[in-house]
């Protein structure tokens, strides 16, 4: 599988896993969604807010570098961090997550192997500046989502919820199929 196709697969995987975990979250009460998880982020909603904030920040970085996504694509997907409804409303988080995931999936369809080697200057949440190629940047975006969803899956299982199968070959089987050899 070429580099660009790998990112299409990862975008679909992330989109489907977000849907799967958010569906599990619908079974939690408001109190459970806001309960202190005694983990990296205070609550389940804090995890989802962090993932949204990080993804939108990274997409904005790509807009600034004029790589695979335009400012027009990102219109309406901003996240007002002072708007408290995103902090405690699962439905609003689900709606915004769907928008962002749709953008990420569409973005990956515009990638080429050459484009994956373009440079991106990025300032992380810790104010550390990084200069990397788009390939490494996208690996970071997808790995970051997978890392925190793994934490969420553990927390949701502690609430007694089954989040389902999370293995990539089961979640995105159509993109792992090899074309028949000639």
What this model shows, in words?
The chain has helices spanning 3-25, 30-34, 44-64, 71-74, 85-88, 90-108, 134-158, 168-171, and strands spanning 119-123, 129-133. The chain has 182 residues and is mainly alpha-helical. The protein has one domain: Up-down Bundle (Four Helix Bundle (Hemerythrin (Met), subunit A)), CATH 1.20.120. It has a two-stranded antiparallel sheet with strand order 1-2. Helix 1 packs parallel to helix 7, helix 3 packs parallel to helix 6 and helix 3 (44-64) runs antiparallel to helix 7. It starts with a helix and ends in an 11-residue tail after the last helix. The model has no long low-confidence stretch (mean pLDDT 88). InterPro entries: DinB, DinB/YfiT-like. It comes from Vibrio tritonius. Belongs to the DinB family.
Task: Please give the structural blueprint.
Layout: H1 3-25, H2 30-34, H3 44-64, H4 71-74, H5 85-88, H6 90-108, E1 119-123, E2 129-133, H7 134-158, H8 168-171
Antiparallel strand pairs: 1-2
């Amino acid at each position: 599988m070429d580099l660009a196709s790998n990112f299409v697969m990862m975008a679909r995987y992330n989109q489907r896993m977000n849907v799967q975990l958010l569906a599990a979250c619908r079974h939690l009460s408001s109190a459970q969604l806001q309960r202190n998880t005694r983990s990296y982020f205070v609550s389940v909603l804090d995890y989802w807010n962090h993932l949204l904030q990080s993804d939108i920040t990274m997409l904005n970085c790509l807009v600034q570098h004029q790589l695979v996504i335009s400012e027009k694509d990102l219109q309406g997907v901003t996240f007002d961090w002072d708007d408290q409804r995103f902090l405690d409303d699962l439905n609003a988080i689900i709606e915004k997550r769907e928008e962002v995931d749709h953008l990420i999936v569409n973005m990956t369809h515009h990638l080429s192997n050459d484009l994956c080697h373009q440079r991106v200057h990025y300032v992380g949440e810790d104010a550390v500046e990084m200069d990397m190629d788009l390939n490494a940047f996208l690996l970071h975006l997808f790995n970051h989502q997978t890392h925190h969803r793994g934490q969420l899956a553990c927390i949701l299982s502690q609430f007694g919820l089954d989040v389902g199968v999370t293995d990539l070959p089961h979640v995105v089987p159509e993109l792992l199929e090899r074309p028949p050899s000639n």
